[in-house]
Amino acid sequence: MSNQIGLRFKEIRKKKHLSLKQVSEGITSIARLSRWENGLTNDGMPIEIVEKLIKRLNISYDELLSKQYKYSISIMYQVRKLYKNNDIDGLKSLTDQLLSQYRNGKIEILPSAVAANFYLDLTGKSRDSVMTKTELLELSKYCRYLKVWTIDETIIFSNVQLLLEPDLVYMLSRELISTMHEKGFYTNYAIISLLNAAFVLIKSKKVEYARKIICILNSLDDIVDYKYNLEFLNDIIFFIDHHDSSRLDSLFLELESLTKYKQLKSDYKFAFSQVKQIYNLE
């Protein structure tokens, strides 16, 4: 997928009549940009370099996406709309439709995995209730090779975590954390992915794994835009540890007074109900 983005970048660069030297100067080497553009690298291009290259070409990230990836993105929008409306039947129908297309070789596994992930989130069903063991192994194999953590890789990880074994979710989260630490900053995509991973691990009863991710998130300055998401996770951990919902009650009360967070409050209450059921703490 990252290679397809490189090929698209090359096409746009040439249309703008810019040389490799003009585009790469001060950002990356000519050789590295050339390899990426020609699909000759398996490790993609790091997020921070792609962002600089996009800025130099004065284009949006969306302009780089392949037709296949744009299809996956369009599926994500459909899935999120169904999820927001609590449309379980709609999600099941879309999941079955996409899995049928995948099994017939018409699409790759990612779109069906995204739909299945959100269907599982709403229903609490097991992974093997929607995908075969072979399909789950195929998805896991794909995710094990997410090493560079480009934007597309981070988005993929964020939207299929319920279909992965908890140990793999934690391992990939640690690799994402290490990569972001080496870069010296956390992208919004990485933060969202790690917040999702922490909650998935909580739902999988891997609280110690979740606690470690949350501890790292608590230390970040970049988290300010996601303070309520992080506060919710901290309060959920407190609830599991102490069987005390007072902190969550205070959070819900605060969100109640903020009109723009009405949907967020609804999402948190639903997530809280899931946790109570999973941990038998009704």
Automatic annotation (TrEMBL):
PROSITE patterns (UniProt xref): HTH_CROC1
InterPro entries xref list: Cro/C1-type_HTH (IPR001387), HTH-type_regulator_Rgg (IPR053163), Lambda_DNA-bd_dom_sf (IPR010982), Transcription_activator_Rgg_C (IPR010057)
Matches recorded under Gene3D superfamilies: lambda repressor-like DNA-binding domains
Stretches assigned to the HTH cro/C1-type domain: 9-64
CDD domains named among the record's database cross-references: HTH_XRE (cd00093)
PANTHER family, A to Z: TRANSCRIPTIONAL REGULATOR-RELATED
Protein name as it appears in the record: Rgg/GadR/MutR family transcriptional activator
